[in-house]
Amino acid sequence: MRAAIPSSLSRREFLADAGILAIGFTLIPRSVRGLSSGSGESEALAPSADALDSWLVVGRDDRVTVYAGKVELGTGVSTALRQIVAEELDVPFERITWVQGDSQLTVDQGRTVGSGSIKRGGGQLRRAAAEARQALLEMAASKLNVPANQLELTDGAISVTGDASRRLTFGALIGGGRFERTISGRAPVKAPSEYKVVGRPVPRVEIPAKMTGKHVYVHDLRLPGMVHGRVVRPPRVGATLESLDEQSGARLPGVIRVVRKGTFVGVVAEREEQAVRAAKALTVKWNATPVLPDAADLYTRFKSLAKTERVVGEAGDVNAALRSATRPVRATYRWPFQLHASIGPSCAVADVRGENATVYSATQGAHQLVAPIAALLGMPAEKVRVIFTEGSGCYGHNGADDVAGDAALLSQAVGRPVRVQWSREDEHAWEPEGPAMLFEMAGAVGADGKISAWTYDAWTPTHGARPTRDPATLVPGALVVGSAPAGEFFSGGGERNARTTYVLPNERVTSHPVPSFPIRTSSLRGLGSPQNSFANESFIDELAAAARLDPVELRRRHLTDPRALAVIDAAVKRAGWIARSSPPPRAALASSEARRGRGFAYVQYDRTEAYVAAVADVDVRPDTGTVRVRRVCVAHDCGLIVNPDGLRNQIEGNVIQAISRTLKEAVRFDATRVTGVDWNGYPILRFSEIPEAIDIELIDRPDQPSVGAGEAATSPIPAAIANAIFDATGARVRQVPFTPDRVRAALRA
Amino acid sequence: MHQTSTTLRIRVNGTDHDVAAEPDTPLLYVLRSELSLNGPKFGCGLGQCGSCTVHVDGAPRRSCVTAVSSVAGKEVVTLEGLGTPERPHPLQQAFIDEQAAQCGYCINGMIMRAAALLARTPRPSRDEILSAMDANLCRCGTHMRIVRAIERAAAGGMPSPTGREG
Fold it and tell me: Residue A738 belongs to what H/E stretch?
């Protein structure tokens, strides 16, 4: 048994009263939930996933409090997951209280990543709710002395069939008590045909508060005695600190302390603007040797750094098939480093006093952040608690974990709660970037009008560099020791959708990991899928054009999965796709008249998840090279739909963000640092550039399990746009972003 | 060390407040830290993204690059001054009806900018909406819904310029 958790850590409730956070109200005492045992390992601090009491508690007031490890990142999952619980438990949706992402209060459901919240997280919650339903039925049967099969469960109460007067609410049955029950996984779950809440466009729970300034983001937390920290950053990790004049910051108004640990330099001040001023005023000199290649040499550097390769998929004899091809096609595609580019730079509040640390963070993994924070602070993991508090949309691994480390270090230094708000420059320059990728493709279409050969080779840095027990996996930890670990290469990320789902007789798909690169990279929405799909779906279009085939028809010839064919048919029908068999005439270079084109792409996300087909309509001005995406049609099948409006919102967001990434986004850097550190240096899509319409067809499959929709619709968009530019102009753009310069260059090629 | 701030009187959401701040402090920090108004958000501190937008005498202003001293004697309205969850402003209601948010971090700026637009141009064309909103950034890609929400509010008619109840 480990020591009891001090009361200040064992209770949690936010009361956002006039925007001021108050902590200290017990929501559900841990003792009620039986959460007091553990081995002292950090993982053991989280409630056990096997115990029903870990997941939900019924109050005497008939409210059901759910403890979810999956968290709201702005995608609406906290509403959709509530729907799943409300449905399975037959409790009114409004009567559910939601607690999410607390390393000591909620089950560790794994990070909120990879479009897995509904698929995996929802499944766990459904089983927990079904178990609770079963338990409540058994209790009611005993109390009412009626067999369970003569009981019915509605609106959070159980009554005797045909005798509504004999009725017990959930609160009356167990309110405030414990189920003391293991989740067997055998409790019956409802058939989708019985669903009343799942499948409905339930409005998102937190949206009214978000529209009125009442929602408390991590940026809005104010703890009693809280002060403000800022970190003064070198050009890059590994730079050495030549000199630091602490007095240049320390003597300014409100400054509490200048903190230095290795090359981690921070200031803490009473007020936010004082911390900002002091950080700016601090005289500090860095030495940073150049480590980054010239942008023009980036992809060559990738090739020289990659020493190994991995065959992801292989069929037939592709070498022989290419040799015998009459017209083999070869193409090289390039994708740049890109940013998550959250609108709110990362922010965290940490309270490290005495033996305990509490960190409020918009992390994707509260449980997983405990170990790196504990290591950074030199504290045992069981003394560290991470509480998820929603932030600005993150779209993957942004600066949320790193800023939590900043706040923890500074709070430890001053012994007061510290809030650290990254600047725009901090976020643009220091968040882990989505990896650049290089693709070399070769293939051919045979005399039978089918693809006879297909090879793919891709070079990529890692798509996963999440913090571990090594504190240097957080930026502040890396600054303390002066270097960042290479980390383990996460091959799964870059290989997402590397192999297509087309049935090809001769293919070879090879990935070439770039084991370490001086730009830190990690997971950005979709990981390698948008990049891989850009290459694959552009290349199949090139093969179709070379063989003078309709690009949709060529894809159909290599698919047998009826769900794949159904989304393709739906998108094509909705867009009014007209089959065409030849590449268009080249656009005249000087023409200022916009050329219209239409492109198609299809991807099954991660090869086993959501099916998405997209048709993009574009206007291209040959003289300026500007591309405008006018309309996008998407057909989408992610199995059983939990919340159709939430799903549409996600698809629209994926489409807009993907247009932005495709047309505009690339990280700029010089030999030592990222240089595009504001919205001018890293522009994203604006209102004047959005399509006139995003036309979505949802294919609901109540008989199929739900899979994620947080990322899938991004994947086909880049190629759909590239293919539309080709259709409009006859020019093929093979490097993202499709800036006017690149489009003009493609027109001249 | 103690701060050397002065006391300034500013009028926010119809109420006068005496705040302690140096005159060049960005209005955003004063609204958030001194008045606990969480509607306006820090996005860039550079006047580039619009997350911090408030109304100053009815016009949209980026509070991250607006010195607090410059709003003395003027009427500042924040998102909280437009309406509450219980009594939302028609534009807030339109955003709720359209579910025009994902993470919602940029939405303060979207609503404040749109409210100023509709006060000036009650029935804007789609192009006028796009042009007015072009200065504000959203990363979740909620643009289509934001435009629909503004169109919905415009179709439903708008109350007085800064839209306060009463």
Answer: none
What are the tens digits of pLDDT across the range A591-643? Answer: 889 999 999 999 999 999 999 999 999 999 999 999 999 999 999 999 999 99
Q: A737 preceded by cis ω (within 30°)?
A: yes
ipTM value: 0.94
The domain spanning residue A583 has which CATH number?
A: 3.30.365.10
Q: Tens digit of pLDDT for each residue in A313-367?
A: 999 999 999 999 999 999 999 999 999 999 999 999 999 999 999 999 999 999 9
**What does the alpha-carbon distance between residue A456 and residue A439 come to, in Å, rounded to a whole number?**
7
CA atoms of A438 and A459, how far apart (whole Å): 5
The answer to whether residue A444 sits within a structural domain is: yes
| Mean pLDDT, rounded, for B57-61 | 97
Same domain, A329 and A348: no
In chain B, where the domains are located: 6-81, 83-156
Q: Within 13 Å, how many C-alpha atoms sit on residue B45's CB side?
A: 16
Among residues of chain A, what percentage have pLDDT more than 90? 89
What pLDDT, on the 0 to 100 scale, is given for residue A37? 40
**Model pLDDT, residue A389:** 98
Token pair for B127:
């192009």
| DSSP code string of A280-331 | HH-EEEEE----SPPGGGHHHHHHHH----EEEEEES-HHHHHHT-SS-EEE
Dihedral sign, Cα of residue A518, residue A522, residue A525, residue A529: positive
pLDDT digits (tens, 9 = 90+) for A701-712: 999 999 999 999
Residue A33 clears pLDDT 60, i.e. is over it: yes
| pLDDT at residue A584, rounded to an integer | 73
Q: Is the pLDDT of residue B166 over 60?
A: no
Percentages (nearest 5) of helix, strand, coil residues in chain B? 40, 15, 45
The pair of structure tokens assigned to A518 is 């001086």
Q: Which residues of B touch A714 (CB under 8 A)?
A: none
pLDDT digits (tens, 9 = 90+) for B131-156: 999 999 999 999 999 999 999 999 99
Q: Per CATH, which fold does B83-156 belong to?
A: DNA polymerase; domain 1 (1.10.150)
Name A713's Cβ contacts closer than 8 Å, sequence gap at least 6: A610, A612, A614, A634, A636, A650, A651, A654, A655, A658
Q: Do A690 and B145 touch (CB under 8 A)?
A: no
Q: Are residues A153 and A257 in the same domain?
A: no
∠B58-B59-B60 over CA atoms, to 5°? 125
Asked whether the CA dihedral B28, B29, B33, B38 is positive or negative, the reply is positive
Question: Which residues are A437's β-sheet partners?
Answer: A335
Q: Does residue A2 fall inside a structural domain? A: no
Read off the pLDDT band of A203 (50, 70, 90).
very high
**Domain spanning B6-81, CATH architecture:** Roll (3.10)
Return the pLDDT at B6.
Answer: 86
Looking at residues A458-465, what average pLDDT do you find? 96
Looking at the complex, does the CB of residue B143 fall below 8 Å from at least one CB of chain A? Answer: yes
Q: Which residue has the tokens 């020493």?
A: A307
pLDDT of amino acid A585 = 73
Cross-chain CB nearest to A210 (options B40, B107, B129) = B107
Same domain, A333 and A344: no
Residue of chain B nearest A227, judged by CA positions: B33
Which residues of chain B neighbour A647 with C-beta distances below 8 Å? Answer: none
CA A225 vs CA A342, A600, A696: distances in Å: 28, 56, 49
Considering the domain boundaries, does residue A1 fall inside one? no
Count: domains in chain A: 3
Of A220, A344, A686, the CB nearest to B43: A344
Kindly list the residues from chain A whose CB atom is less than 8 angstroms away from the CB atom of residue B78: 213
Q: Same domain for A116 and A194?
A: yes
Q: CA–CA separation, A207 vs B92, rounded Å?
A: 10
